[in-house]
Write a structure and sequence with these properties.
Largest sheet: none
Structural class: mainly alpha
Helix content: over 70%
Oligomer: single chain
Radius of gyration: 17 Å
Order of helices and strands: HHH
Number of strands: 0
Distance between the termini: 60 Å
Strand content: under 5%
Amino acid sequence: MSDIIGLIFIFIGLTFDVFGCLGLVRLPDVYNRLQAATKCVTVGTCSILFGTFLIMGFSAPGIKALLCMVFLVLTSPVAAHAIARGAHRSGIKLWDGSVIDKYKEDKEGEI
């Protein structure tokens, strides 16, 4: 039974990864693409790793999958934030259809 549930989680993760890759191609600016890539990694890859854990159980590969999940959940959003902030501070413009720019309010580090 856990094998079937694990395969369902792997399929869900692959679906998120496919839609994340589609978002990287179709979205208009670096900030939207970054959001799609972050969701792809956080939800999609963690779902694949959780499915792997369910199939493998509490063996060495299963524990490594859990540790990789924890690492991805902790590092992926932080890295995306750092990249977005660096892109904004270097002057990369938002898409014309963007509604709000919260980074514009942040004046830290400007001359």
